[in-house]
Design goal:
heterodimer, A: 20-stranded antiparallel β-sheet, elongated, B: mainly beta, seven-stranded antiparallel β-sheet
């Protein structure tokens, strides 16, 4: 029976992991989950597992993925009504209504390559190597407003399509952690120092587009202001007129890319856990305070463009015998080229400005109330700060340890303005091996199209010297 | 443990069941319908177009558009070059080959040259032959004594003469015989006798030389006309008489008398003789040209090319060459001549550039060319028989004749202009129907003529429009301009058909978009007296051509002139467009109101699926008190609403239909000036359904 139970658990974890790899979310459920050592990723002072040694193998110790946005896929694509009841329809109006003034789509991927932690009396030391990636796309609602309405309702106005931002970066993190129970059974503090080695980065400093339509429609003025900084293993290519045609990756060498050390950075984590009463414990942490300074393969593009479209002037395209005659097709081609060139960066717009990427900082503040030895409830507030993006997550969790080998956590989170987030965490210990899975939004699995964010954390630990 | 298992299984089931709910992400079910209907407004096109640009752009046919330098008034000029063209060869023929024959030409008499044969008769022969006492003289031979007188009474003593080797026998039609007596004796002599033709046994002539002194000479001449003469002749001395001398003289038996038989200026009409090199002069003849047109009279001609071929036929036994001369065919001012052997061979003479004068025969001052020739006889080899009636014949051919110019009287001729037709191909006219009138149209016939023949042309044009209505132009008859000389080349003259002398206003107002047919006749030399002093003339490429030009000053009187243009479309291409507004902001400098309407049609079933509202897209420019154009600004919206778009989507063709009016509701005259402008700005405002 135990054997069957074990198989079922393993199977369910794998199935959930498969789902989670596809649809996952930042996990606040994880922090108070019993018996899982990954809680120190969110608070270097918090160790929910009592093992003396924790070991994670490359590719096995864990995989984290999250995807966040201000809207759900369902806001844009959903089942239709009437004759379209069996179909999915693209609902731009609904999508538009669901948007805020500024909207973002963001994803993180984190893949531990190595982890080792060990306990020595009241201290805990750890070292971890993790590959991390972050991508973010931000747009203003006005962009969709323009696509939805066109420019006719805004004749006589300079319509601001807002700012577009596309940021992404990738780095390798080498983290050294230390925590110590300063006051016995009362206060534990922790610190984690992280050396960061940047691989690539794309940062949109600004990208703004405006469309000004004359009151009588006789002109259409397109203006843009763009500044993008990049650190990428590619060099710009230009045409004979010095217009940028693309990025050349002929000299790209994967090995050099993976092992590069030219873009160094540093962050640190601080955390504390204070046991207020025997049943009440509070904790707080700041994770990832720091930045990466990219100094290698820098490419920056900045251009302020303006194009005033007044229609194609056919004055010289009427009389083909005129010396100044230009064929209409050629005229259209010229105008199209002129329009394209107005916004296409030239060599003079390309530079190598320095690029600094701030690592998104996470602030955690929470506490637990111990119901009994194997069960507590927790409340955690998490503030995620990534440039202009700030997101608050409030999570209520119930954490149980069943039979000393199976950890089970259920949670409910309010993530931004999303209130329908039921989370689940499970960890199954099989001897020294522990399999775990955590997700903050189990509802995303039932109807992923309605999810505004998904995350998952799944992995396997090798635990040695566990006390209970 | 059971409870735990139950919890785990419940959770697992929940996850799996929930995880299977992926319907909302099955994008295969994504409908193509997108509930997105942005309304877009954008300037589509603009243009600052002059009338000149517009007219040039629509002028795809053989039409030219001009503008008056001063006023800028636009004129549409249609030109049909060589509406008809007649080369002179179409009605006048000049055969490239003319053949003549001289007929048999008798050679006539010939002259053998002077013939002279002498006979010396010594005193010894006289003494031995003649009796009467002269024989005694032999005794005084060598002595100086008085020469004794002597008289011989006869009979005749014969003294043979050496035979002539110039002939054996000849018949003379002229010439003289000279008998010369030279007295080489030392005493005077009187001699009678005769010259006798032994071959013909006839006496040629008697002679008497009286008292010819010592060393004296006496000549007797007689005519030989009509005489037949052999070369065997003899002197017969009938009497010999001398008075002797009183003084002693040296008697020498070798002293002699000399008789000479001389033939001079002989004209031999026949005979057997040795022909001497000589020239026979005075032969001539006429080459009479024959043309296909019997009344064709050529006075003179300059040849571009040609060849004179002369072949002789000689029926005599003479040999030699003919010196042939055409004194009225001149090359570089020199008469054409040739030396032609009359051995039966041909001689060819290149006549390129030759100038021919046909008008030297006073009896017929045209079509005739005189010729002359002489015969250069060669020495004969031995005796030949000759008769003055022997003949020589010439065959003369003028071949590959091509003329550069001809002067003459080419007669009265009438050429029917081949009926023909043409299409104006005026794109603008093809696309319009309705009432319009050009106030002052002109049709111009441009005549190009290089034929030196006065001519008058009478022709007509009949135009038809697409509806089959016809109108005749009724142009005036006109005379063709004639060049002054062959060097004048082609001269041009225009005949204007305007509203005063023709029906051109109604003719153009048809408009003649169907066919324009024409026909007529040309009369040459009608009422013209042609003479040598006032000839017709042509050059090789002379022709008469008439171009037609329509000159249409764009002074229009238009009332509801409609134009249509149909374009094939695929209505389905517009299924994403809910409505369209075309906003036309214009400053119109053209005094024409333009309205536009669209018709959506199915060209297969030939049904009209719908139509747009008629919209005035251009408001006519106004005129101030001085008639100057004042541009008018307007902003008009041409809308296709959802209903129109519904019709458009079903259509496979769209008809652009417009009407144009000149000022004052079509009663005023709109002068279209080349620099009148339309400043047009087109804005499209469309609601698209994506």
């Amino acid at each position: 029976m135990k054997n069957i139970f074990t198989k079922i658990c393993v199977f369910s974890l794998i199935m959930m992991a498969i789902h989670s790899t596809i649809w996952a979310q930042e996990s606040t459920t994880l922090q108070f989950m019993k018996g899982v050592p990954q809680s120190d990723l969110q608070n270097p002072a918090l160790h929910n597992d009592s093992s003396k040694v924790v070991f994670g193998l490359p590719g096995l110790s864990g995989m984290y993925f999250d995807f966040n946005s201000n809207f759900a896929i369902n806001d844009l694509i959903h089942k239709g009504t009437g004759s379209l009841a069996d179909s999915l329809v693209l609902d731009v109006n609904g999508f538009h209504n669901s948007l805020k003034a500024t909207n973002s789509i963001e994803e993180h991927i984190s893949m531990p390559l190595f982890y080792l932690g060990f306990r020595s009396k009241k201290s805990f030391f750890s070292i971890g190597i993790t590959e991390k990636e972050n991508a973010q796309f931000t747009f203003d609602k006005s962009l969709i407003t323009f696509l939805k309405d066109g420019n006719a309702p805004y004749m006589g106005q300079n319509f601001d399509l807002g700012n577009l931002k596309m940021n992404a970066f990738d780095y390798t993190e080498i983290a050294f952690g230390y925590s110590n129970e300063i006051i016995k059974n009362k206060l534990t503090v922790g610190l984690k120092l992280k050396a960061l080695m940047g691989k690539f980065a794309v940062q949109t400093e600004r990208m703004n587009l405006k469309v000004e339509t004359a009151a009588d429609g006789s002109s259409l003025n397109l203006s843009s202001d763009m500044k993008i900084n990049m650190a990428i293993p590619a060099t710009p290519d230009y045409d004979q007129d010095n217009f940028l045609t693309g990025m050349n990756t002929d000299n790209f060498k994967p090995k050099d890319f993976l092992m590069q050390t030219g873009n160094m950075g540093m962050t640190f984590d601080l955390g504390a856990v204070y046991k207020l009463t025997p049943k009440i414990t509070i904790s707080g942490s700041i994770v990832d305070i720091g930045k990466i300074s990219f100094k290698k393969d820098l490419v920056s593009m900045g251009k302020v463009s303006n194009y005033n479209w007044v229609g194609i002037d056919f004055s010289n395209s009427i009389d083909s015998t005129n010396a100044n005659y230009i064929a209409p097709a050629k005229l259209v081609e010229n105008e199209t080229t002129k329009l394209g060139n107005s916004f296409k960066p030239q060599k003079s717009n390309i530079g190598s400005d320095p690029l600094e990427v701030k690592i998104p900082t996470k602030y955690y503040l929470g506490g637990t109330y111990q119901i009994n030895n194997n069960f507590n409830v927790g409340l955690l507030d998490r503030i995620y700060k990534n440039g202009a993006i700030s997101r608050n997550t409030l999570t209520l969790s119930a954490n149980a340890l069943l039979g000393k080998f199976f950890s089970l956590t259920g949670s409910y989170s309010i993530v931004g303005d999303a209130y329908n987030n039921l989370g689940l965490g499970m960890a199954l210990r099989l001897g020294i091996m522990q399999l775990y899975f955590v997700s903050d939004n189990l509802m995303a699995l039932s109807d992923p199209a309605k999810a505004k964010f998904v995350n998952a954390h799944v992995g396997m630990n090798f635990l040695f010297g566990r006390r209970n | 443990m059971k409870q735990l298992s139950l919890v785990i299984w419940s959770l697992l089931l929940l996850v799996i069941l929930n995880g299977c709910n992926m319907d909302s992400l099955d994008f295969n079910k994504l409908s193509k319908e997108v509930n997105l209907s942005p309304e877009i407004v954008a300037p589509l096109a603009k243009a600052n177009i002059t009338v000149w640009d517009l007219l040039k752009s629509v002028n795809q046919g053989p039409t030219d558009i001009t503008k008056d330098p001063g006023t800028g008034l636009v004129r549409i000029v249609y030109k049909q070059n060589d509406l008809f063209k007649y080369k002179v060869s179409d009605f006048l023929s000049f055969p490239p080959l003319q053949s003549f024959t001289s007929g048999d030409k008798e050679l006539g008499v010939i002259s053998p040259g002077n013939i002279s044969v002498s006979r010396n008769i010594t005193l010894s022969e006289l003494a031995g032959t003649l009796a009467g006492g002269l024989e005694t003289i032999t005794a005084y031979d060598g002595m100086t004594v008085p020469f004794p007188a002597n008289s011989y009474p006869g009979p005749a003593a014969v003294f043979n003469v050496e035979q002539s080797n110039e002939y054996t026998s000849i018949t003379l039609s002229g010439g003289n015989l000279e008998v010369t007596f030279e007295n080489k004796l030392k005493v005077p002599v009187t001699l009678t006798g005769s010259l006798f033709d032994s071959g013909n046994n006839q006496k040629i002539t008697d002679f008497t030389f009286s008292n010819v002194l010592a060393n004296g000479t006496s000549v007797k001449t007689v005519s030989l006309s009509g005489l037949k003469l052999s070369n065997i002749v003899e002197f017969r001395i009938l009497t010999f008489e001398t008075s002797g001398s009183t003084l002693p003289v040296n008697i020498n038996l070798k002293d002699y008398i000399k008789l000479t038989f001389g033939l001079k200026d002989l004209k031999i009409s026949s005979g057997n003789l040795m022909v001497k090199s000589q020239v026979l002069q005075g032969f001539s003849g006429i080459l009479s040209f024959v043309f296909p047109e019997p009344d064709m009279k050529a006075y003179a001609m300059v040849l571009k090319s040609g060849k004179l071929i002369i072949k002789t036929t000689n029926k005599s036994k003479l040999s030699g060459a003919m010196n042939f001369t055409l004194k009225e065919i001149k090359m570089n001012g020199v008469p054409v001549s040739a030396n032609i052997p009359f051995d039966g061979s041909s001689t060819s003479i290149d006549l390129t550039g030759a100038v021919v004068n046909f008008a030297t025969d006073p009896t017929q001052l045209y079509n005739r060319i005189p010729y002359s020739y002489s015969l250069q006889l060669a020495n004969s080899n031995g005796y030949v028989d000759y008769f003055s009636t022997d003949v020589l014949k010439m065959d003369i051919t003028l071949d590959k004749l091509a003329y550069q110019s001809i002067h003459g009287d080419f007669g009265k001729r009438q050429v029917q202009i081949d009926p023909g037709s043409f299409n104006l191909n005026l794109d603008m006219l093809n696309k319009i129907t309705g009432n319009f009138k050009l106030v002052n149209p002109m049709l111009e016939m441009i005549i190009h003529n290089s034929i030196g023949m006065p001519a008058s042309v009478n022709m007509n044009f009949n135009g038809s429009n697409k509806a089959g209505k016809t109108e005749a132009l009724n142009p005036p008859a006109f005379d063709v301009p004639v060049p002054g000389s062959t060097d004048s080349g082609t001269i041009t003259k225009s005949i204007i058909c305007d509203k005063q002398n023709s029906n051109v206003v109604n003719f153009i107002a048809l408009p003649p978009t169907g066919q324009i047919s024409y026909g007529g006749k040309i009369d040459f030399n009608k009422g013209n007296e042609v003479s040598l002093a006032n000839p017709n003339f042509i050059v090789s490429d002379s022709n008469l051509a008439v171009d037609l030009a329509l000159n249409l000053p764009m002074e229009l009187q238009i009332s509801n002139l409609s134009f249509k243009d149909t374009s094939a479309i695929s209505g389905k291409d517009y299924d994403k467009i809910e409505s369209v507004d075309l906003i036309l902001n214009a400053t119109n400098g053209i005094p024409l109101d333009v309205e536009m309407q669209l018709f959506f049609i199915d060209t297969i079933s030939k049904t009209q699926l719908g139509l747009s509202k008629k919209v005035k897209i251009l408001k006519a420019a106004e005129l101030d008190a001085k008639g100057a154009i004042i541009p008018v600004k307007s902003s008009q919206t041409f809308s296709l609403d959802q209903s129109d778009m519904g019709s458009l989507r079903k259509a496979n063709g769209i008809v652009f239909s417009g009407t144009v009016n000149s000022p004052s509701g079509g009663t005023g005259v709109a002068s279209i000036l080349s620099d009148s402008k339309i400043d047009l700005n087109v804005v499209i405002k469309t609601k698209v359904n994506l």
